[in-house]
TrEMBL record:
Pfam families: Amidohydro_1. SUPFAM superfamilies: Composite domain of metallo-dependent hydrolases (SSF51338), Metallo-dependent hydrolases (SSF51556). This is Probable imidazolonepropionase. GO terms for molecular function: imidazolonepropionase activity; metal ion binding. InterPro entries: Amidohydro-rel (IPR006680), HutI (IPR005920), Metal-dep_hydrolase_composite (IPR011059), Metal_Hydrolase (IPR032466). Its cofactor is Fe(3+). It comes from the Eukaryota. The gene is Amdhd1. Keywords: Histidine metabolism, Hydrolase, Iron, Metal-binding, Zinc. Pathway: Amino-acid degradation; L-histidine degradation into L-glutamate; N-formimidoyl-L-glutamate from L-histidine: step 3/3. It is an enzyme of class 3 (hydrolase). It comes from Nothocercus nigrocapillus. GO terms for biological process: L-histidine catabolic process to glutamate and formamide; L-histidine catabolic process to glutamate and formate. It catalyses: 4-imidazolone-5-propanoate + H2O = N-formimidoyl-L-glutamate.
Amino acid sequence: MAGEYGLLLDNAEQLVLVCGRGEKYLLQEGAGRLPVLRHASLVVGRDGLIKAVGQADALRSQFSGASFDRVIDCSGKCILPGLVDAHTHPVWAGDRVHEFAMKLAGASYMEIHEAGGGIHFTVEHTRNAPEEELFKTLEHRLERMRLAGSTLVECKSGYGLNLETELKMLRVIKRAKQSIDIGISSTYCGAHSVPKGKTASEATDDIINNHLPKLKELQLSGKIDVDNIDVFCEKGVFDLDSTRRILQAGKDMGLQINFHGDELHPMKSAELGAELGAQAISHLEEVSDEGITAMARAKCAAVLLPTTAYMLRLKQPQARKMLKEGVIVALGSDFNPNAYCFSMPMVMHLACVNMKMSMNEALAAATINAAYALGKSDTHGSIEPGKQGDVIVINSTRWEHLIYQFGGHQALIDYVIVRGKIVYKNEKRGIMSSY
């Protein structure tokens, strides 16, 4: 067995499995009581996959003749699955910090949008930005997400609104997939807004007749790599019929449906997503009771974004009702120029305080359920043999400190590990050694 294994994380005070029986997602009951091992160890192979997890004494005996490239003593610490951010917009140029003052003064999202701000401000700057600039800023943003414990991130296009810029964004995302040690699920979001000079109907036709065929061609040739299709289904943007047409066309070319719905106005987006077999729908602040029932029946994940509701002063998503009704509840940061947050620990904290989720439910929503929302819960989102070795190690004897310490993750996270590779080690923790 010598030389076969890459990493041993030894003798953690707590090791949070999240799932212990190969579950693809957790509903309310399962999310409420996550399996946690005490004095446990974890072995990751050189192939980046988890080989074994269990009590420290038992694993020491099982691997007594093995050698490891790296051994980390996790005594007094906790091991958790790498966090999964199920909704981000990380590729863009231009700074919208000035809009924050407008929002604080009472301007609504749509008022800023109609005044030439919002998405269209970012679109103009993103269209003009060189591809290399977009890559460098994406690289920096993904690094900051990773420092906060995210090891799998959904990344959207959507600030181009024309074919040329959307493809530029998707090339940047593919390059990041290939060169940065973080998991990426790539989403085409060309229907993020209606381009200036077009009607919603014209934009819909352009996406279906021009964008999607070109995406399919470039996907087949390996120049881009797209997993999901997204539409901003909203009053004054893309109506239900346009949304249906775009999502169905994307599904027909093999993309997962994962879209914005029922955010600012009740649009019956949830009912549409359930009907089309959507993998996930995001936002849902204005979802109907019927929509919640339909999503539960269709096993369509609800990606809730507590940062957006908080920053835009929107009605909070009905997390408790969704959990009670049997919806698969996931979380995302919605990182974008309008909701500038890299930190899934802070997202989980807000979900607990503002949406009344328990800490167990929030962790499940930011791991296995967020992975499910991206169609990746067979490989990500829990610590189980055969899954990818994506984990974080925190310097506390209780895992809940990751959520409890609002904004404290910079000192709390000791290691971030992706596919068994240490991609971040906290060298500055110093005095933050006991709780």
